[in-house]
From TrEMBL:
Pfam families: CagX. The keyword GTP-binding does not apply. This is Conjugal transfer protein. Keywords: Plasmid, Signal. Belongs to the TrbG/VirB9 family.
């Protein structure tokens, strides 16, 4: 009877949760990864001997200040370099797996460094609170209708590919890396003479920070930069109604008629 009661009592005890987070690879390369910052999570970073892994923190975040610092479980097994908001890690030992913790002028980070056949080359942190504040001040374009289509796939030269593509049934948005040259985007309509190539039409666009806003939607776009070509296609297009605000971010535009 005592054994039975003990087993039931143990079964009612709460279990400690294990908050280990794995960064996610981008759609273009699994070695380039992102992870959302959470002060209560340990981030698992895949590493490998002979490979440098870069950790990229938020803008203006540095390991400097009265309470800043860094500690690693086995310092003899690692080469570490820090500059600005970037940290470079290179394992030297055969068995370098360990933990890394550091505090910046803004946050504290806990990482678990684990040997893997598929090491990360770059792990970029994102910060949901910062993104929420930024969105509140500057609403994202292509969000005018309540429709949000992010189901796009690409074929061609990924060097000119946007990081994200979405539409709201009226406008299409493509977010490009800020350091890259901007390509020209064409919409493509069917061509009976050349079904594979189609007919290319230049699109009207404007820039909203790092987002190219295309003043239409299309099931197929063709992106060109020099000799590089990339097709961007969606099968989930839904057309929205008339845009009464006349804007791309659902804000009312005031027009001064001179009165």
């Amino acid at each position: 009877m005592k054994k039975t009661l003990f087993a039931v009592a143990c079964g009612m005890m709460p279990f400690a949760s294990h908050a280990l987070v794995q960064p996610q690879g981008t759609a273009y390369d699994r070695h380039i990864q992102t992870v959302t910052y959470n002060p209560d999570n340990v981030v698992n970073v895949n590493i490998n001997q002979g490979t440098v892994t870069q950790i990229q923190l938020g803008k203006n975040e540095v390991i400097k200040g009265q309470n800043a610092g860094m500690g690693i479980g086995d310092p003899e097994a690692w080469d570490i370099a820090v500059r600005g908001n970037n940290i470079w890690l290179r394992p030297k030992a055969d068995k370098p797996d360990t933990n890394l913790s550091f505090s910046t002028n803004k946050r504290t980070y806990i990482l678990r460094l684990v040997t893997s056949r598929y090491p990360a080359y770059l792990v970029k942190y994102t910060y949901p609170q910062d993104e929420t504040t930024k969105t509140a001040k500057n609403p994202l374009p292509c969000r005018t209708t309540g429709i949000l289509n992010t189901s796009y796939y690409m074929r061609g030269d990924k060097m000119i590919a946007p990081m994200h593509v979405w539409d709201d049934g009226r406008f299409t948005c493509m977010r490009f890396e800020g350091t890259n040259s901007l390509p020209v985007v064409y919409s493509v309509s069917p061509d009976k003479k050349d079904a594979e190539r189609g007919i290319e039409h230049i699109t009207n666009t404007h820039m909203a920070e790092d987002v190219m806003v295309i003043h239409q939607v299309s099931p197929l776009y063709r992106v060109r930069l020099g000799d590089q070509v990339l097709d961007i296609k969606t099968d989930k297009l839904r057309y929205a109604g008339y845009n009464y605000t006349g804007t791309t971010n659902n804000l009312v535009r005031k027009v001064d008629n001179g009165n």
